Hints:
This protein has helices at about 10-30, 45, 60-75, 85-95, 110-115, 130-140, 200-215, 230-235, 260-270, 280-290, 300-310, 325-330, and strands at about 1-10, 30-40, 55, 75-80, 95-105, 120-125, 160-165, 170, 175-180, 220, 240, 245-250, 250-255, 270-280, 290-295, 315-320. It is an alpha/beta fold.
Amino acid sequence: MNNYLFFRTDRIGDFLLSAVLLKSIKRNDIKSFITIVASEKNYEYIQTLKFVDKVILYPNNLFKKIQFFLQILKTNYFSCGVLDGKKRSIYACILVKAQNKFIITTKKLFKKLISPFINNTFYTDDFDNKIDETKNILKIFDFSFDVKDLDLFESENINEIKFSFGNDIFKLKNFLLLHFDEKWIFDTYIKKFTRIEPNYNELNKFLYEIIKKTKNDLVITSGNLDLQLIHNLKNNFTKKTEQIYFKKIENNIVYLLIKTNFFDLKKIIFNSKLIISCHGAPTHVAAGMNKRIIDIFNSDDEKWYKKWNSHFRNYEFIHRSQFKILSLKILSKL
Length: 334
């Protein structure tokens, strides 16, 4: 058995790009045993993936950190890789006993400092995109890349999403999904982002226009924050449960799902035919399922985003802009 140790102590969306690499390794090396050092933000999610064999939570206090380092330092690994670029991960990788090591860093200076210790040290801007980065890492092991490695969830049994209205349980498939989280709301995510926040009337009109044009049911999911706009919306919907609200528009239904957890969101994406979302983890999940995506991001950061999404299939993007303009651009792509 070949033991692989990888550090990805950041967020779910970041991990999902690394998941392409992990799936490639698993396909190339049938004897691989893959261990991920994770953060509190992605630990539970990584545990659900079939191509990961073990997940270790990076500790948050000194005593547990000492235990953590003693645990990984006493193990001989076939390979150790730093995928999150964090200093703590880099130091750990330098100390770990492994036949092969590689580090991805976002800082040129780090590459110069680390290269004498680890030959395979890559600066992230050395590559045009993340898939080129993945291919170069695979070359360390003489492994191949296959486009099928992009299908991250093909072996998973993701059930249809079921809605429970009292005693009435029904399944919903082939709907459109609008993921409306804090990235839509001005000054709640990254302050330099172009404002796209709609007022209630603009959002309500947008929902009607989606239904009118597509004649599909629509599901709206929200993030974990209490957004006033979502609160206003649900007050004008019919309540079925604390998390499920609905409204009939013409011959279709708009479902509003409040504070959907990430595991349910994954099921919802799997059963949708299209997702509209500001760029983030839901976008990467949809890409791993080859779902149709309308992605929204800041025009100033297009070069950076294209580095992360160049491998997306069935994909279109729109730059952030005033909602009246943005909504028309989205509707034109439906």
